[in-house]
Specification:
Blueprint lengths: L1 E9 L4 H4 L12 E4 L2 E10 L2 E18 L5 E11 L2 E10 L2 H16 L3 H7 L3 H15 L4 H11 L13 H13 L5 H22 L5 H13 L15 H17 L6 H11 L3 H6 L5 E2 L4 E4 L13 E4 L2 H8 L13 H15 L8 H12 L4 H8 L25 H7 L7
Antiparallel strand pairs: 1-3, 2-4, 3-4, 4-5, 5-6, 7-8, 8-9
Helix pairs in contact: 4-5, 6-8, 7-8, 9-13, 10-12, 10-14, 10-16
Length: about 425
Amino acid sequence: MAVSRCICFAFYHYLPVIFSNIRLISSTFGTVQHRFRLIEVTFLVTKGHVTFAERNVTVGTIVSRKRKDGTAAYMARVRVVQDGKVVHSETQTFDQKKVASAWLKKRETELAESGGVDTAVQQPTLSKVIDQYLTELDLAKPAGRTKRATLLQLGKTSLGAKKVDSITSAEIVEYARFRVRVDGVKPSTVQNDLILLNGVFAVAEPAWGYKLDQTAIDKGRAVAKNMGLVCRADERTRIPTMDELKAIMLHFADASRRRPWAVPMVKIVAFAIFSTRRQEEITRIRWDDLNEADRTVLVRDVKHPTKKIGNHVQANLVDEAWRIVQSMPRLNEFIFPFTTDAISAQFTRACVWLGIEDLHFHDLRRAGVTRLFEMGWNIPQVAAVSLHRDWNMMRRYTNMKVSGDRYVDWEWKDKAVEIEWKRFR
């Protein structure tokens, strides 16, 4: 067999003549500009017959379209085709066409270099890296429910679908812009997204060798901040009014009468207020965690910026919270053997049904802390119940006037204890 190799340059409309298996797919909703591409062809001469064996085809396109705000966007895409199959694809969106063309030319040149395609193909998508990040975290200190859900949702976005070596600061800014202008989330939510994503970037290259550029997210976050796409969340002060609590408790009491085996939300809402415990902390409390003599409870995996898993801390239980705990039947190791999803869903549905706006389950914790300060407790006393790590976070409560216990005559203190929960059998 005699083999000779040549390099051919062709415009895309000549390619079907040479390779019938290559189809050019153009977007139907924007102007498409195809670049010529480099094709490496091997001529095989066997017994007088000449056949063509395609090696690499680098296809570059630029699609222009309008965003919802009327501005122009240019999506540059480069694909590598081997033996009629797309083995690598990258997409970047730019505000200027010349910038898109420059990026496209740069990537085509890099992919044409020796080993360029192999390197690109080996790089995973950001979504795959996020999955690996969470999997390895589980071996040491599992991610919290919110962190895991946020990162997994981020992996499902267009940013998550990109190969890690193609992510630039412009992509980070575009993600922030899309979240605010299209998804309609607050800049503080985007801020949290990028903080969690930064943790993935910090690990990916030094730990696994993935070409995820740390400076890309650093610069992207800085630009997004200057553009007002990210910011710190405003300090939340919302607590339920007594009328709102009455409506919520009546709603859940009625549900308990009809379905006594359902999640005892009357008990859980009251316990959340009096104990000042977070939702996930409530579901983790075990009977063995109670200290009868001191009336304290071991709160497992207390929220902490750097150490959450294994951060178990003793907390004081006020009388009202202690009575509710003692009213629960001992059916297994957990005092409140329910999932956070079940509790959250029922509380959210109740607020929607009752027309109560902008009230979250976590606001019950704030209501409990507010109550203690209104009763004249000082910061160390309150912190022994709420387990606030930083006393500075509690200083906003110190300006409250000592007005006494607003729950002193609250009928649901006793009803929360009296309502019986019967597990479904």
